[in-house]
Design goal:
With about 325 residues, the chain is of the alpha/beta class. The protein has 2 domains: about 15-40 and about 140-315, 3-Layer(aba) Sandwich (Rossmann fold); about 45-140, Rossmann fold (3-Layer(aba) Sandwich). The chain has 14 helices and 10 strands. It has helices spanning about 20-25, 45-55, 70-80, 95-105, 115-125, 140-145, 150-155, 175-185, 200-210, 230-240, 250-265, 270-280, 285-290, 310-315; strands spanning about 15-20, 30-35, 60-65, 85-90, 110, 130-135, 165-170, 190-195, 245-250, 300-305. Strands 1-2-10-7-8-9 form a 6-stranded mixed beta sheet. Strands 5-4-3-6 form a 4-stranded parallel beta sheet. The protein is globular. The chain starts with 16 loop residues before the first strand and ends in an 8-residue tail after the last helix. The structure holds ligand PLV. Ligand PLV binds near residues 70, 138, 227 and 306.
């Protein structure tokens, strides 16, 4: 575990950052920050544990969180370690095995709503008692603050400054924390490619419109990127930093998960596959041709992870109609 410096129970792993030989072959050097290795399976553990530890210091006695799955796992794991009860609200689209994993960590699970935003509205109605704290998975300064050290670690781990950073966007909390981390690391001029799948492109739409856009529905299989509206802070970051939103298809995101499993022997879900597809589906040269990116010798990909994946689901390509 990394040293938080405050003598507190530290719930975050200093994850490896590796140079991927298979992904770099015939391309630029690809560096992978392996956030999938956090104990609950995703980067969420960073921001959520930071938020929850602060909340407990301020008197929180129960957590309620609406989640596509991974934030719920992070809250459940953190609550278990801090010995605080937690209730996790999942939309109907979250697989049952994820709900069971959350229950195994000792949290109560309720299924409510067909999309995360509906689950979150319901979660907010459950926090009337004093001491009960609503955990927002992406829209809170403590969550962003908790994500940002992943970049400071990476700065120490990489032999060079990357020419571009690739990260996935759901509600925009990860992107906001990554950019904050990049500013602390002095990477102010390094562009970010913000990856989404078609059918979950609330960030790309917002950046194009110059204001928050609410999608009518999430049609992508990358349900953990499925937040109808991104947080305002992530949109604001696009006016302060070079951020290029980019889309891949569901099939490209799922194929990226399969290739990554072959290349690195690790399973991640399509929300993370979207970022890996920036390499596997050659999004970087596409952005270079469009004049957005200059010379690229090294790319840092945030491997955000995700637990809503099994070998069976990958083999069935997440139910996609394969042509
Ligand atoms: N997942 C959220 C929102 O889901 C959740 O409740 O778990 N990669 C993975 C593996 C994720 O689980 C998420 C978000 C993201 C990327 C996107 O992070 P964000 O929301 O901070 O942009 C509906």
């Amino acid at each position: 575990m990394a040293d938080s410096g405050d003598g507190d129970l530290d719930l975050v792993i200093r994850t490896p950052c590796i140079n991927s030989i298979p992904m770099s072959k015939g391309r630029y050097s690809v560096y992978l920050k392996l956030e999938n290795l956090q104990i609950p399976g995703s980067f969420k553990q960073r921001g959520i544990s930071h938020f929850c530890k602060k909340a407990v210091k301020n008197g929180a006695t129960r957590f309620v969180c609406a989640s596509g799955g991974n934030a719920g796992l992070a809250v459940a794991y953190t609550a278990h370690c801090l010995k605080v009860p937690a209730t996790i609200i999942l939309p109907t689209t979250t697989p049952e095995f994820v709900a069971n994993r959350i229950r195994d960590m000792g949290a109560i699970v309720e299924v409510h709503g067909d999309v995360w935003d509906e689950s979150n509205e319901y979660a907010q109605t459950l926090t009337k008692d004093s001491g009960c704290v609503h955990v927002h998975p992406s829209d809170h300064p403590d969550v962003w603050e908790g994500h940002s050290p992943m970049i400071l670690e990476t700065k120490e781990q990489m032999p060079c400054q990357p020419d571009v950073v690739v990260t996935s966007v759901g509600g925009g909390g990860l992107l906001t924390g990554v950019v904050q981390g990049m500013w602390k690391a002095g990477w102010n001029d390094v562009p970010v490619v913000a990856m989404e799948t078609e059918g979950a492109e609330s960030y790309k739409k917002a950046v194009e419109a110059g204001k928050l856009v609410t999608l009518p529905a999430i049609t992508s299989v990358a349900k953990c990127l499925g937040t109808l509206t991104v947080c305002a802070a992530s949109l604001e970051k696009s006016t302060q930093h070079k951020i290029y939103p980019a889309l891949v298809t569901d099939e490209q995101a799922v194929d990226a998960c399969i290739k990554f499993a072959d290349d690195h022997r690790m399973l991640v879900q399509p929300a993370c596959g979207a970022s890996l597809a920036a390499v596997y589906s050659e999004v970087i040269p596409r952005l270079q041709k469009e004049g957005k990116l200059g010379v690229v010798n090294s790319v840092l990909v945030i491997v955000c992870g995700g637990s809503a994946v099994t070998i069976d689901r990958l083999q069935q390509k997440f139910g996609l109609q394969v042509v």
